[in-house]
Design brief:
Pfam families: ABC_tran. This is ABC transporter ATP-binding protein. Keywords: ATP-binding, Nucleotide-binding, Transport. GO terms for molecular function: ATP binding; ATP hydrolysis activity; transmembrane transporter activity. It is built from seven helices and ten strands. A hairpin with a 2-residue loop joins strand 4 and strand 5. The strands form two sheets. Strands 6-7-8-3-9-10 form a six-stranded mixed beta sheet, with helices on both faces. The chain has a four-stranded antiparallel beta sheet with strand order 2-1-4-5, covered by helices on one side. It has a single domain, classed as P-loop containing nucleotide triphosphate hydrolases (Rossmann fold, 3-Layer(aba) Sandwich). The chain is an alpha/beta fold. Helix 4 packs across helix 5 and helix 5 runs parallel beside helix 6. The radius of gyration is 17 Å and the shape is globular. The chain binds adenosine-5'-diphosphate and magnesium ion. Adenosine-5'-diphosphate binds next to strand 2 and helix 1.
C-alpha cells in the first residue's frame, strides 16, 4: 500500500469569535494517490475550513497536516506557496475564471509560479483543455462558454500542473444535475489516472456514488467509509 499523499492528524480549528467557533474538532483523514473522496456534511459543519487547512491556505489551531509525509507547518510562506503551485489544484463552485482571458490563457495561469515559460505554459494549457474535452474551445472566453464548459476549464487549470491532489469545493453547485454528473465523471477519471481528488459537497446525490465518503458534522469526522484497506 502506498504512503498517503495527504494526512490530517487530530486537526482542530477554533475561530476567535465570541463565543469561540469550533469549526474543526480533532479531525483525522488520510488520502492516497488515485483516491476519489467525498467529504459530505451540512452547511456550517466545517467542510470549507477543512479544505483550506488541507490545501495549506490556513493553519490549524492544533494538530498536523502532512503532504507526502512532510508537516506543512514547518514550511515558511514562500515554500508553502511553491508547494501549492506544484502539487495542489483547486476547483470552486463559481469557477473563478478570469473573464477577459481565453480558456487557454485561464488554464495557463495554473502554471504561474512553477518556472515554466510563456510558450510552454500555453502548450501545456492546450493539452489540459484537450484532456477535459475542450480542444475546440481554447480561444473562447468564459462569457462564451456554458457552465459545464467553464467548470471544465477550471478543472484543466487545476490539472495543468499535474498536481498530487485536487480539491473541489461544491464543484457542481452552480450546475444542473446532468452537467454536474458529467463533471463528477470527469473528476473520477482524473482520480483513476493517479491524482487524489477530494470533493467537498453538502449534496448526498453527489457523495453517495463515490467510492469513499467522509461525513463531517459539527467539525468532527463522524464516519469514513470505503477507504482502501492495507
Ligand atoms: N473566518 C471565520 N471566522 C469565524 N468563523 C468562521 C470562519 N470561517 C468559518 N467559520 C465558522 O466555522 C464553521 C464552519 O464553517 P465552514 O467550514 O465554512 O462550513 P461548511 O463549509 O461546512 O459550510 C461555521 O460555524 C462558520 O460560521
Ligand atoms: Mg463551505
Amino acid at each position: 500500500m502506498t504512503e498517503p499523499v495527504l494526512t490530517v492528524e487530530e486537526v482542530s480549528k477554533t475561530y476567535p469569535t465570541d463565543p469561540p467557533t469550533h469549526a474543526l474538532r480533532a479531525a483525522n483523514l488520510a488520502v492516497r494517490a488515485g483516491e476519489l473522496v467525498a467529504v459530505v456534511g451540512p452547511s456550517g459543519s466545517g467542510k470549507s475550513t477543512l479544505l483550506s487547512i488541507m490545501g495549506t491556505l490556513e493553519d490549524p489551531t492544533s494538530g498536523t497536516v502532512r503532504l507526502r509525509g512532510y508537516p506543512v507547518a514547518r514550511l515558511g510562506d514562500a515554500q508553502r506557496a511553491a508547494l501549492r503551485a506544484r502539487h495542489i489544484g483547486f476547483v470552486f463552485q463559481q469557477f473563478h475564471l478570469i473573464p477577459t482571458l481565453t480558456a487557454e490563457k485561464n488554464v495557463a495561469t495554473g502554471l504561474l509560479y512553477t518556472g515554466a515559460g510563456h510558450a510552454e505554459r500555453l502548450r501545456h494549457a492546450r493539452d489540459a483543455l484537450e484532456a477535459v474535452g475542450l480542444a475546440h474551445r481554447t480561444r473562447y472566453r468564459p462569457g462564451q462558454l456554458s457552465g459545464g464548459e467553464k467548470q471544465r476549464v477550471a478543472i484543466a487549470r487545476a490539472l495543468v500542473k499535474q498536481p498530487s491532489i485536487v480539491f473541489a469545493d461544491e464543484p457542481t453547485g452552480a450546475l444542473d444535475t446532468a452537467t454536474g454528473e458529467n463533471i463528477i465523471r470527469l473528476l473520477s477519471e482524473i482520480a483513476r489516472s493517479g491524482t487524489a481528488v477530494i470533493v467537498i459537497t453538502h449534496d448526498h446525490a453527489i457523495a453517495d456514488p463515490m467510492p469513499r465518503r467522509v461525513r463531517i458534522r459539527d467539525g468532527r469526522v463522524t464516519t469514513d467509509t470505503g477507504a482502501p484497506t492495507a
